[in-house]
Amino acid sequence: LISAGTAWLLGYWTAEGSMHGRGVTVCDTSLDNINKWSKLAERHLGVDVSIKKRTYTSPNPRVPLYLASASYRSDVYSLFSSALTIDGEKKVPDIILNGTSELKEAFLEGFKLGDGTVNLERYELSTSSFVLAAGLRYLLYCLDLPGWISAVHRGGNRKTEFSVNTSLYPERQRYDDNE
């Protein structure tokens, strides 16, 4: 079993993370989000996390990007790889799909912080993975929240993007640094 804090970590990683040969990484322009993920990863997974700042200069200056990386043990690797399909697409892990309402809610809160926006009194959760969009929609259904999926094809070589939308639901504050 996993804790709600670990479910939150998985949700945020599913939105903003990747896996590489030596570790699990999340990237965000918000240092506050990176610090939150790092503290929860240290507390719930017992891993050391390093944070780096990547800056971009001319000719295309952008907002700095912060990266938090944790080298992983086999159990941490298994946990995060459970959010990937055989094709490498992201998905909602089975441990969340089959978990308690608290785990489902925590996963959604983590994902929302990474790839969620508030738009016209609803949440919009964005992804390029239809499997992930369907899983997010299922979590909303399990929590008795109305939800729907819409698809947008951006043209060119870009993938179709999926949005999972729901009416606003109360902010959850349980998955903060004090948990």
Summarize the structure.
This protein is an alpha+beta fold and 179 residues long.
Describe the 3D structure.
By secondary structure, this protein is an alpha+beta fold. It contains six helices and eight strands; from the N terminus they run αββαββαααββαββ. The strands form two sheets. It has a four-stranded antiparallel beta sheet with strand order 1-2-4-3. Strands 5-6-8-7 form a four-stranded antiparallel beta sheet. Helix 1 crosses helix 2 (about 30-45), helix 1 (about 5-15) runs parallel beside helix 5 and helix 5 (about 100-115) crosses helix 6. About 40% of the residues are buried.
Sum up the structure in keywords:
single chain, 38% helix, four-stranded antiparallel sheet, 26% strand, alpha+beta, 179 residues
What is this structure's SSE topology?
Layout: H1 4-16, E1 17-20, E2 23-28, H2 31-45, E3 49-54, E4 65-70, H3 74-81, H4 94-97, H5 101-115, E5 116-118, E6 122-127, H6 130-142, E7 147-153, E8 160-167
Antiparallel strand pairs: 1-2, 2-4, 3-4, 5-6, 6-8, 7-8
Helix pairs in contact: 1-2, 1-5, 5-6
